[in-house]
Amino acid sequence: MADNYDSENTNLVSSPSKKEKKKPDWSRFGLSQEQAKASETSLNTFSVDKNEALYQHTDGGKHNELFTEDLQLSHKPWWKANFFISEPILFGTWDGVFTSCLINLLGVIIFLRMGWIVGNTGIWLAILIILFSCGVVLIVSLSAIGVCERCNMDGGGVYFLISHVLGGRIGGSIGVIYCLSQAAGCSLSVMGFGESILGLLGSSNAWIARGIATAVVLLLLGINVAGVKWVIRLQLVLLMVLFFSVMDFLVGSFVHTDPENGVLGYLAVNLNNNSYPDFVEGESFFTIMGLFFSTVTGILSGINMSGDLHDPFNNIPTGTLSALGVSTFLYVSMATVLGATCTRFSLQNNYMIAEKVTSSLFLPFFFPYINRPDNYI
């Protein structure tokens, strides 16, 4: 019995060695023993490197990321690499924020009413109105920038600011009112554009103006549906027209005079006569300030671009404050030029006096009309 027990234990101990896999005969495949060892070594090295790479894409080896091998083959996430989803087009400080703010700040008021404002308030009060209005919107801009810097602002624009400051419920109600006000402002702008074109055509048919306004609304809708990149392209074109219009105005004030329309050129007598206020009947400092203040209300248009910016944290402050500084300089320059070159009577009675100052009649006459609807693109 003892002999049988020893033989069984011997069989149990020796059984694992019997179950070991036999080494393959590499000579049957035309490989030598050295080549077989080299191939096994390379395979083991590759498996170790691959496991280390996979381990780097896991949470400490606890959780294996889905599509980890796809991440090794491409720098794009798997959902973009597999389904070919296009990346959004983002803009920077100057093409995204600065352009949007400047286009909205330099509105139709400075072309059609700046001379009338200077004719009533005089140069010094006009500059005071400009600085006061720009100071108010500067405070608003700094407040909005402060909220943007303290919150992770990706999109939403003005609604994002309102909802974070006042809460979701109040922000939602104010956001609806804000959208309705923008829609109403757009309708008024395109109707004004249609009536202006109707006056150029020399017609009195109101349906023509309504048809032009409807066509402009559809055009703006198509531009917005096409994508924000087309909006920016159109704004860049309008900004170029604006630049040439302002330059034509400033250069024309030195080289062009029109005594029949009250444009006498730079004279000391004009500065003396137009330095102090002379309000027409029914107007006052506050009514004229209310008229001009509507020009600077587009200061938050750059913040509305927050969802299409590379770095809203840096783009919004730089672009917004730069646009406000440039527009303030242009406001003061145009008020001073008109007061120094035109008579008081022409400033108070000719709304298109800025056109008479310029050396070319086309660009300053063209921009006030295209500026009305483009603010709502």
UniProtKB/TrEMBL annotation:
Organism: Acanthosepion pharaonis (Pharaoh cuttlefish)
Residues in the signal sequence: none
Start and end residues of each stretch annotated as Disordered: 1-37
Stretches assigned to the Amino acid permease/ SLC12A domain: 97-351
BP terms from Gene Ontology: cell volume homeostasis; chloride ion homeostasis; potassium ion homeostasis; potassium ion import across plasma membrane
GO cellular component, as recorded: membrane
GO MF terms held by the record: potassium:chloride symporter activity
Localization annotation: Membrane
TM region(s), chain numbering: 89-111, 123-147, 159-184, 204-224, 236-255, 285-307, 319-340
Statement: the UniProt record of this protein carries the keyword Membrane: yes
Lipid bilayer topology: Multi-pass membrane protein
Name used for this protein in its record: SLC12A8
Major localisation: membrane
Pfam hit, one: AA_permease
Keywords: Membrane, Transmembrane, Transmembrane helix
Keyword Transmembrane carried by entry: yes
